[in-house]
Amino acid sequence: MHDFNFIQPKSAAAAADALAGAEDGQYMAGGQTLIPVLKQRLAMPTDVVDLSAIPGLAGIEVSGGAVRVGAMTTHAAVAASGAVRDAVPALAHLAGLIGDPHVRNRGTLGGSIANNDPAADYPAAVLGLGATVVTESREIAADDFFTDLFETALDDGELVTRVDFPVPDAAAYVKFPNPASRYAIVGVFVSRAGGAVRVAVTGAGPCVFRQAEMEAALSAEFSAEAIAGVAIAADDLNNDLHASAEYRAHLVGVMARRAVAEIA
To answer: What predicted TM-score, i.e. pTM, was given to this entire model?
Structure first.
């Protein structure tokens, strides 16, 4: 690990100023991605701006048909929240599946979605529920937020402050986890709100994505059988030592049908 300046600001404005004044600065939320990367010397920032001392970035509020989760809220807090379990049980369930107890008690919602790991769980919930990502300067719709492998719509230095999840009529998340890391080899989040159905897939491709054919089929008939015949192309899916692209394509169908069956 290389030397760096460690800065712990007390406000979002001070954090932005610290990052802007750094030669090569990096925000740190829970540190579950950044610290291993620093240890492996894959990143060498001159300044690390720790967000943990900023008041108001953590917390959960349910009101107005939405679950508002602060960016610095840990996975464990979401999983244990009675308010989240009552409003969107699938969101609490997803948070409880992330990593191990250490990761869940240190990792944060904002850090997860800003990093946009292709196998992370939270992007599936954000996209699958049609959430809104709120920063210090604007609101970004889920469909516009995740752009590519480890890339998002965030501008340089832009800070996620919270995520607003609409409360659906029903939702479910099912994943096939890597047995060691618990990352999703394939995870599928399905939600239904009125006549609208969203199907978000993580782990299968370079970035979380929606499965439009399944959404159309489920909008016409919400049943596992309705999507049994939907063919998933393997062409653009991940292919690595954990699973081939063809196997991931198969898992997308299996996980989606299980999620729909859980809701139905």
So the answer is: 0.95
